[in-house]
Amino acid sequence: MPKLCAVFGGSRGIGRAVAGLLAERGHRVAVISRALDSAHAVAGGLAGADHVALSCDVSDELQVLRTFDELQRRCGDLHYLVNAAGVNRDALLARTRTEDMVGLLHTNLLGAMLTCRASLRNMLRHQGGAIVNVGRTTFQPRVHLSLLAATCVPLLALTAALLHPLLTIFIFLEKNVPSLCRCLF
Questions:
Q1: DSSP calls for 131-143
Q2: Is the CB of residue 162 less than 8 Å from the CB of residue 131?
């Protein structure tokens, strides 16, 4: 029986690659993106059948809760969560607007916290699952990446804090996620 995988940020980049890999492995994939039309396009092009597309802004707690409720109602228990939703603002800190900083923190860090919390409730109930939080764990010294680094380091700490005997939790460098997911899923 295929396992249900929710891929937040699944319509582009690493999230899209992971969604494709999971579908090729025979899993049922929920492609979740802010842009529902993009999520539909990706879900419709995946190998296999019964994939779903959902819209969610991970920085909005109510949207995250509604998304997990809909996922449970339509698909059943969640086995795998991939947090690939994220934004980057390449800019010098001195020139960055406060609202851009807040947006970055809400999407990259708070979003992962909200989706992890919602998925943990489900995974612990059926005693198992895996969470992959996508982020960078190393940075070259580049002043324009200071905002991204400010969200990735706490994401690594969150991931470490979530360790539980029933869960497998990983955080990977961006470029390695699809290949490492082949081993995990």
A1: EEEE--S---S-G
A2: yes
Within a 10 A sphere around the Cβ of 121, how many other Cβ atoms? 11
Q: What 3-state class would DSSP assign to 79?
A: coil
Give the domain extent around 92.
4-184
Collect all residues with Cβ–Cβ distance below 8 Å to 81 and sequence separation of at least 6: 5, 6, 8, 115, 116, 119, 123, 129, 130, 131, 132
Q: Are 28 and 50 a contacting pair, CB within 8 Å?
A: yes
8 Å CB contact between 22 and 80? yes
Total domain count, the chain: 1
Asked whether the CA dihedral 79, 124, 180, 160 is positive or negative, the reply is positive
Q: Kindly give the parts of the chain with pLDDT less than 70.
A: 136-146, 163-185
Do 181 and 21 form a contact (C-beta atoms < 8 A)? Answer: yes
Of 114, 91, 115, 102, residue with least CA distance to 151: 102
What does the pLDDT look like over 83-94, one tens digit per residue? Answer: 999 887 777 778
Find the CATH number of the domain harbouring 19: 3.40.50.720
Classify residue 149 by burial, with Cβ atoms within 10 Å: 0-12, 13-18, 19+.
middle
